[in-house]
Amino acid sequence: MADTRRRLRSGTVVLGGMGLLAAALTACSSDPDKRCVDRDSYTYAKGYKVVSDKNCKTSSLKTSVNGGWYYGGKKKGSWVSGGSFIKPHKSSGGTGVHRGGFGGGHHSSGG
What we know:
The structure is a single chain. Strand 1 (about 35-45) and strand 2 form a beta hairpin. The protein has one helix and four strands. It has one helix at about 1-30, and strands at about 35-45, 45-50, 65-75, 80-85.
């Protein structure tokens, strides 16, 4: 009986630690990568060409690049694809999209 209680306590510590790790990772990943890209450079094979941030700053600078902020995606060399020009909203109070994982329960929606 003592072995069962000891095992249960150690399992609880491991699960609690995993919960903290998951919370830390979620907090770090809630702000996706943001890159300045040339909107006119899109190719199916490569995506968008990453350019200097000065091309996306809202100022009176005239640039030869049609720059725009690109969120998420995967960068390969100086190109990025698989993201979006729409800035994702940070979830607060459980109003964001939930993709399952720890504590998904029966109310989770896959995605």
